[in-house]
Design brief:
The structure holds two protein chains of two kinds. Chain A is an alpha+beta fold. Chain A folds into three domains: about 290 residues, FAD/NAD(P)-binding domain; about 140 residues, Alpha-Beta Complex (Flavocytochrome C3, Chain A, domain 1); about 130 residues, Fumarate reductase/succinate dehydrogenase flavoprotein-like, C-terminal domain (Methane Monooxygenase Hydroxylase, Chain G, domain 1, Up-down Bundle), CATH 1.20.58. Chain A is about 40% helix and about 15% strand. In chain A, the strands form five sheets. Chain A has a five-stranded parallel β-sheet with strand order 5-2-1-9-17. A five-stranded antiparallel β-sheet of chain A has the order 11-15-14-12-13. Chain A has a four-stranded antiparallel β-sheet with strand order 16-10-18-19. By secondary structure, chain B is of the alpha+beta class. Chain B folds into two domains: about 110 residues, Beta-grasp domain (Ubiquitin-like (UB roll)), CATH 3.10.20; about 130 residues, Fumarate Reductase Iron-sulfur Protein, Chain B, domain 2, CATH 1.10.1060. Chain B has a five-stranded mixed β-sheet. A two-stranded antiparallel ribbon of chain B has the order 6-7. The longest helix of chain B is centred in the C-terminal third of the chain and has 16 residues. Classes of the chains: A alpha+beta, B alpha+beta. At the A-B interface, helix 4, helix 6, helix 7, helix 13 and helix 14 of A face helix 1, helix 2 and helix 3 of B.
């Protein structure tokens, strides 16, 4: 297809990219955007749903500016949002190590890492504000790792050839989140943020086409509560718990995002989810979640499987141990296939390579679905103490779960669902297609394209919350200063509340035979087998039917004990699962439409002779923007063209 | 190798904060020792749901020991046997065939029970809101490398900052004191030049909020340190006391 043909299939979607050279766009935007003066800020209310890196930093920053903020979290405290579990680090283009880094290079690596399916202007802005994030966090008292000279330490991460990752041991997400939480707590104490813990969003309220409020379910009382505001910001994270097993927390869900989709917000690139290469392998049917081992382990750990199939068989049977296999019989397949990046190839590449070896029969545990991550060489080179200093807490965690000492026996790892690059479509201002509804952090789609590089999620969450949204939201709110506060007695609120009341009533009255988790596990199996690491046309068509059947099964046979207007953990899970079932179907639709392989989306029919992902830029250089058309109707696909003005998209090559 | 074992569970059930609670006993057969403690409770809950009974309510989220949500008192110990682990990082291989395991919520005046094993820990948030921060806004801060920080100080700050706010310290303390929690935040920030500026104000504000919320005093029994899943040291309490006394002397 030629360029002109591509233009024909593209719907005109305005992403509001500012004019000018790449490096000037954000400055130009800030110079010309509308602002709200201090006395008017006090009259404007903003709802922020979620308290992760995006939500907490946005709520705190907007409150500091003078807006009234209503902030909601699903856990018992804003400090527990799942950003806290991020281990490895946060990227920034500081170039402190003097190894050639720059804003442009961070931008370029991120665009390339995303397999050329993200917007140039957004990604450039992300790289540009990355440095401010580090400054901000240090000023808050975030104890980043330091060198003996007292300056900040950096380490390398997948997909980069420079060391630009700042870290706080193996718990960087925790420290960054606690920094944002402290800023948020200060505002709560000052009364500028009203904080609601243990609340879950159950619907978005629109008035005259604009987002004006939310319906929340109080998870302690089970009551539905109404809240109004001039704008709503969604910061609710990703939806990969669709797969049941993932590295996400138990309450991480896609429901808020899905409610907004049903109210008219586009869902962009739903099929683009990330499968992280270094997780602890699945060990039983009762398993509730998967544990991530930080990607930073790949800095010093070497990934391998046996060269000989008989050795693999013996490992699977438990008659041989990894440490007993001699060096010459080990296949360090990432170093073999990708000499330039070796064990530090991006996540999508590392995950697929592990799957390829295991599918070929070389898996190293009893299920045949694991590869080794070996620190033997690192211990010889650096000494046990240095390895312990760098990764001690991760090694301890591994030993607690697997009952094996990774200092002596190589770790076993396997890919697992980890992150959603897809999410609500947003323009340059982080506004969704519903006016007044903004989406930040993982729940938007904007910066990672088809694959996210390690240490970029923390960067994006904080960039959106501290340095982007507090500016761009003013461009919207400046027009709202004459708009008085909305009463929650308006019919729009009543209607939304009645809708969710009916939905809960229906769910409670099914009284079937299957538990929520049983059906969720079935959904997970379908997703993993058909919409997982490798997808194909036939499988995707098949799974859409199977997902529809499973949805019917859910709505006719789920069993929820207890009462609706009460603390009810099964009802909470059922409401989330009802949405996961539909999200899964949309993911399959999107994966089916995108007949190419790019980043985390791998279509088996579209690969190079060497088995690498094969993009079709002539046909798919677009963001898939799915538009809800009503229940039981197929969604409509709109396409936002991705025009690369500054970078020439290339086939990603991590070999040389 | 992990085996399958049979266990009995004595679980605290309590409908609400003002309702009297009691222990209920359940049996679970053939639990693989590779199962995590919370997965074992999931299995029990699935069984209860299958019998149309209300599942046991307990707090949990990340299930990898960092969010601080899980909070079970197991066989008389916060987060159960083992050191340096949260409840979600506890595995059934710590238990033997035929064991009876007693599971209770945090028991502390500062943490009222909401239902079963779930408690209200919002008091900890309130203490942080009183002063557990550096009073700066977003933007306008110096370059991150403008102020070198001694690596040792930075590492000690990180040791203290590792606190996950789970509440095991106060739940373990015979006085119901939250000093370990408060001191961890005070220490982290007092050790860093960025936090030093308002260290005195912070120590006073946080201690006063802690007292107001009904937490007890510290008598240096060190029980909190023993049970802390993140091995936060009570030397932080000594540092808090120093900060607090020097702040009071200045008044």
């Amino acid at each position: 297809m030629t360029k002109i043909d591509l233009d024909k299939i593209i719907t005109k979607i305005d992403s509001k990219i500012p004019e000018g050279a790449l490096a000037d766009k954000w400055t130009n935007y800030k110079d010309h955007q509308k602002l709200v003066n201090p006395s008017n800020k006090r009259r404007l209310d903003v709802i922020v749903v979620g308290t992760g890196l995006g939500g907490a930093s946005a709520a705190a920053s907007m409150a500091e500016m003078g807006f009234n903020v209503l902030n909601f979290c699903i856990q018992d405290s804003p400090r527990r949002a799942h950003s806290i579990a991020a281990q490895g680090g946060i990227n920034a283009a500081k170039n402190y190590p003097n190894d050639g880094d720059s804003v442009y290079r961070l931008f370029y690596d991120t665009i390339k890492g995303g397999d050329y399916r993200s917007r140039e202007a957004n990604v450039y802005r992300l790289a540009e504000v990355s440095n401010s994030i580090i400054d901000q966090c240090v000023a808050q008292g975030v104890p980043f790792a330091r060198e003996y000279g007292g300056l900040l330490a950096n380490r390398s991460f997948g997909g980069a050839q420079v060391s630009r990752t700042f870290y706080a041991r193996g718990q960087t997400g925790q420290q960054l989140l606690l920094g944002a939480y402290s800023a948020l707590s200060r505002q709560i104490g000052l009364g500028t943020v009203k904080m609601y813990n243990r609340h879950e969003m159950v619907d978005l309220v629109k008035i005259d086409g604009r987002a004006r409020g939310v319906i929340m379910r109080n998870l302690i009382t089970g009551e539905l509560e109404r809240y109004s505001a001039h704008a709503v910001v969604l910061a609710t994270g990703g939806y990969v718990n669709t797969f049941f097993l993932s590295t996400n927390a138990m309450t991480s869900n896609g429901s808020a995002l899905w409610q907004c989709y049903k109210k008219g917000a586009y869902f962009a690139n739903p099929c683009m989810v990330q499968i992280h290469p270094t997780c602890i392998p699945v060990h039983g049917d009762y398993q509730s979640k998967l544990t991530l081992m930080s990607e930073s382990l790949r800095n010093d750990g070497r990934i391998w499987v046996p060269k000989k199939l008989e050795d693999a068989k013996a490992l699977q049977a438990g008659t041989l141990k990894g440490k007993d296999i001699p060096e010459e019989d080990r296949d360090y397949y990432l170093e073999r296939r990708y000499p330039a990046f070796g064990n530090l190839v991006p996540r999508d590449v590392a995950s697929r390579a592990a799957k390829e070896r295991c599918d070929a029969g070389y898996g190293v545990n009893n299920t045949g679905l694991a590869v080794f991550l070996d620190f033997n060489e690192a211990i010889d080179r650096l000494g046990k103490q240095t390895v312990k200093d760098r990764y001690g807490n991760l090694f301890d965690m591994y030993e607690e779960i697997n009952n094996e000492n990774p200092y002596e026996t190589p770790m076993m790892i396997y890919p697992a669902l980890h992150y959603a690059m897809g999410g609500l479509w947003v323009d340059y201002e982080l506004s969704t297609s519903v006016p007044g509804l903004f989406a930040i952090g993982e729940c938007n789609f904007s910066d990672h394209g088809a694959n996210r590089l390690g240490a970029s999620a923390l960067m994006q969450g904080l960039a959106d919350g501290y340095f982007v949204l507090p500016y761009t939201i003013q461009n919207y709110l400046a027009d709202q200063i004459q708009v008085p506060r909305f009463s929650t007695d308006l019919p729009e609120f009543k209607e939304a509340e009645n809708g969710i009341k009916e939905r809960i009533k229906t769910l409670m009255s099914i009284k079937g035979k299957e538990s929520v988790d049983t059906i969720h596990k079935n959904l997970g199996h379908l997703m993993w087998n058909f919409v997982g690491m490798a997808r194909d046309e036939k499988g995707l068509q098949e799974v859409i039917g199977k997902l529809k059947d499973l949805k019917k099964e859910f709505w006719s046979n789920v069993f929820i004990p207890g009462e609706a207007n009460d603390l009810n953990i099964e009802l909470e899970k059922a409401l989330r699962l009802a949405d996961f079932l539909e999200i899964g179907e949309l993911m399959a639709h999107d994966a089916l439409d995108r007949a190419e392989s790019c980043g985390g989306h791998f279509r088996s029919e579209h690969k190079t002779e060497e088995g690498e992902a094969l993009r079709h830029d002539d046909q798919f250089m677009y963001v898939s923007c799915w538009e809800h058309q009503g229940d039981n109707k197929d969604p409509k696909l709109n396409k936002e063209a991705l025009n690369y003005e500054f970078v020439v998209p290339q086939t990603r090559n991590y070999k040389k | 190798m992990d085996k399958e074992i049979n266990i009995k569970l004595k679980v605290w059930r309590q409908k609400g904060p003002k309702v009297k609670g009691q222990f209920e006993t359940y049996s679970l057969d053939k639990v693989n020792q590779g199962t995590s403690f919370l997965e074992m409770l999931d299995i029990l809950n699935e069984k209860l749901i299958g019998e149309s009974k209300d599942p046991i309510v307990f707090d949990h989220d990340c299930r990898e020991g960092i969010c601080g949500m899980c909070s079970l008192y197991i066989n008389g110990e916060a987060h159960g046997p083992g050191t340096g682990t949260t409840t979600c990082q506890l595995y059934i291989r710590r238990f033997n065939d035929g064991d009876t395991i007693t599971i209770e919520p945090w028991r502390s005046a500062g943490f009222p029970v909401i239902r079963d094993l779930m408690v209200d820990r919002s008091a900890y948030d309130k203490i942080i809101q009183a002063g557990g921060f550096v009073s700066i806004g977003t933007g306008g801060v110096p370059d991150a490398n403008a102020t070198p920080i001694e690596r040792e100080d930075s590492e000690m700050a990180m040791d203290a900052a590792a606190c996950i706010g789970c509440g095991a310290c106060a739940a373990t303390c015979k006085n119901g004191s939250a000093m370990l929690f408060v001191s961890a935040k005070v220490s982290q920030l007092a050790l860093l030049p960025q936090g030093k500026v308002e260290a005195a104000r912070r120590a006073k504000a946080m201690v006063s909020k802690m007292d107001e919320l009904g937490f007890g005093n510290c008598t240096n029994t060190r029980a909190c340190e023993m049970e802390c899943p993140k091995n936060i040291s009570i030397s932080n309490i000594a540092r808090l006391n120093r900060e607090f006394i020097s702040a009071k002397c200045k008044d």
